[in-house]
């Protein structure tokens, strides 16, 4: 099959750590250009400006956007209007309505748009989802606690409106939750702990209503030093399941499970995202599930704000 030419825009931490290696290893993709105000990647044609790339390279049919959520809409809009397929890092945008606008623009333009949720591609998420089928959920507790200084050094955008604060990693937990639960939940209470010098929360709690009365809650904290937690613990009428390390490991009734190994199975979250994007482009599909962002938006709507001590990196 013909390789697809792709341009990567926003060359920062995630582009370097995950996107560039995943594209380089994929049979489907050819990294044909980068768009970045400051960075380049050896051996790849570099543009500072997206409009210039779109004009100069009509042969590049796909644009993958890795910048933070607030500036992403203008890039996505320009790419779609230029008839290109667009892949969006998580969260797909800064607001729900701008994401809906992108989806409708893509439908009109006849191009694909993919709101990626990398944590849904973690090794044991599909096994957890399969195990839950036919079981009655009693309790689900998300514990997402990490050290922001270790994982997000210098990322000042996280603390500005639209940067999501602790929901930047927390939305990954919500992307797993919304993937594995068969019934939809909705937020009932939330507390947002906002440092007095920041615009976004450094910690948050959420509780949700579940249609059959299960207790569903989440706790996110960016101030955790030492052991780090990215766990989802689930109790059902037929046993317990714990997803750990952001979905990479799974224990059922205390027994660790290992991933089913299929011949030639794609390994890794980002290789799977790029394989899905290739499928969407070839089939002319759109995948724009906004449910994780919806829960975060609800927390900002309903959450009780608590001012906490300033965050000094
Ligand atoms: P980052 O390194 O701080 O930023 C990525 C790049 O975006 C920057 O290097 C910058 O490139 C560009 N950028 C920043 N502000 C911009 C603006 N106002 N306009 C245009 N471009 C701008 O952030 P990151 O960690 O890669 O995160 C980016 C996205 O990936 C976020 O949505 C995040 O949630 C997601 N993500 C991050 C991780 C992670 O581990 N870090 C994991 C998964 C997903 P130039 O200045 O060179 O243009």
Main sheet makeup: 9 strands, mixed
Bound molecules: NADP nicotinamide-adenine-dinucleotide phosphate
Which strands sit side by side, in order, in the main sheet? 14-13-12-11-7-10-9-8-15
Overall spatial form? globular
Overall number of structural domains: 2
Count of individual beta strands: 15
Range of strand content: 25-35%
Q: Give the N-terminus to C-terminus distance in angstroms.
A: 48 Å
Helical amount: 25-40%
Work out the helix count: 9
pLDDT average, as an integer? 96
Architecture overview:
The protein is built from nine helices and 15 strands. By secondary structure, it is an alpha/beta fold. The protein folds into two domains: 4-115, Rossmann fold; 119-258 and 297-308, Dihydrodipicolinate Reductase, domain 2 (2-Layer Sandwich), CATH 3.30.360.10. The protein is globular, with a radius of gyration of 20 Å. The termini are far apart. The protein binds NADP nicotinamide-adenine-dinucleotide phosphate (NAP). NADP nicotinamide-adenine-dinucleotide phosphate is lined by residues 10-15, 36-39, 66-69, 71, 89-90, 118, 155, 157, 168.
Keywords for this entry:
313 residues, alpha/beta, Dihydrodipicolinate Reductase, domain 2, six-stranded parallel beta sheet, 9 helices, binds NADP nicotinamide-adenine-dinucleotide phosphate
Brief write-up:
By secondary structure, this protein is of the alpha/beta class. The chain contains 9 helices and 15 strands.
């Amino acid at each position: 099959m013909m390789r697809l030419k792709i341009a990567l825009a926003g060359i920062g931490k995630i582009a370097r750590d995950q996107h560039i290696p995943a594209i380089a290893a994929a049979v489907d993709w050819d990294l044909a250009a980068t768009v970045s105000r400051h960075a380049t990647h050896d051996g790849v044609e570099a543009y500072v400006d997206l409009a210039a790339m779109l004009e100069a390279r009509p042969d590049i049919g796909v644009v993958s956007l890795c910048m933070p959520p607030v500036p992403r809409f203008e890039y996505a809009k320009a790419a779609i209007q230029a008839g290109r397929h667009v892949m969006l890092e998580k969260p797909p945008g800064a607001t729900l309505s701008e994401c809906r606008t992108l989806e409708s623009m893509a439908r009109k333009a006849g191009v694909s748009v993919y709101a990626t949720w990398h944590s849904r591609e973690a090794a044991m998420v599909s096994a957890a989802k399969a195990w839950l089928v036919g079981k009655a959920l009693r309790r689900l507790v998300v514990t997402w606690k990490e050290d922001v200084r270790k994982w997000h050094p210098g990322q000042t955008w996280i603390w500005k409106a639209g940067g999501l604060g602790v929901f930047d990693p927390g939305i990954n937990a919500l992307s797993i939750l919304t993937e594995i639960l068969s019934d939809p939940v909705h937020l009932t209470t939330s507390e947002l702990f906002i440092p007095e010098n920041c615009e976004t929360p450094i910690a948050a709690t959420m509780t949700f209503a579940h249609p059959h009365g299960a207790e569903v809650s989440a706790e996110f904290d960016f101030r955790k030093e030492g052991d780090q937690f990215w766990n989802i613990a689930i109790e059902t009428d037929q046993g317990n399941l714990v997803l750990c390390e952001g979905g990479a490991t799974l224990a059922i009734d205390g027994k660790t499970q290992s991933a089913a190994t299929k011949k030639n199975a794609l390994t890794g979250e980002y290789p799977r995202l790029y394989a899905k994007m290739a499928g969407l482009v070839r089939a002319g599909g759109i995948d724009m599930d906004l449910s994780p962002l919806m829960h975060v938006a609800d927390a900002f709507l309903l959450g009780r704000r608590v001012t906490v001590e300033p965050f000094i990196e």
